From TrEMBL:
<dbReference type="InterPro" id="IPR011146">
    <property type="entry name" value="HIT-like"/>
</dbReference>
<dbReference type="Pfam" id="PF11969">
    <property type="entry name" value="DcpS_C"/>
</dbReference>
<dbReference type="InterPro" id="IPR036265">
    <property type="entry name" value="HIT-like_sf"/>
</dbReference>
<dbReference type="InterPro" id="IPR001310">
    <property type="entry name" value="Histidine_triad_HIT"/>
</dbReference>
<protein>
    <submittedName>
        <fullName>Histidine triad (HIT) family protein</fullName>
    </submittedName>
</protein>
<feature type="domain" description="HIT">
    <location>
        <begin position="4"/>
        <end position="113"/>
    </location>
</feature>
<feature type="short sequence motif" description="Histidine triad motif">
    <location>
        <begin position="97"/>
        <end position="101"/>
    </location>
</feature>
Amino acid sequence: MDCIFCKIVNGDLPSTKVLENDKVLVFQNINPEAPVHVLIIPKKHIASMNDVQEEDLALIGEMHRAAQEAAAQLGIAESGYRLINNCGPNGEQTVFHLHYHLMGGKRLGALTGISPSHT
């Protein structure tokens, strides 16, 4: 498999780990777009949110728990943060391994690409 996130999970590529358990890995984004910008990935390869199966639902819960823990550990839980999943080409997904971006550390701007009639 030629998945960059699977290579990080396997230790074939380096990462700056923030949090890790047997199901989930949280690590620093190498191209941060906010003062705090980490990625939350399942250790199991799932290509996108569209590929999540019934048996993966507990894993999604683990990812959300990891987001809470990482936000607290990184000092942004109280001030607020954004948790983002990009899915598919129009959602700007560039790595096809399910992941969340956890971003914070400053007041984040309004989401772009969304017309006011859809908010």
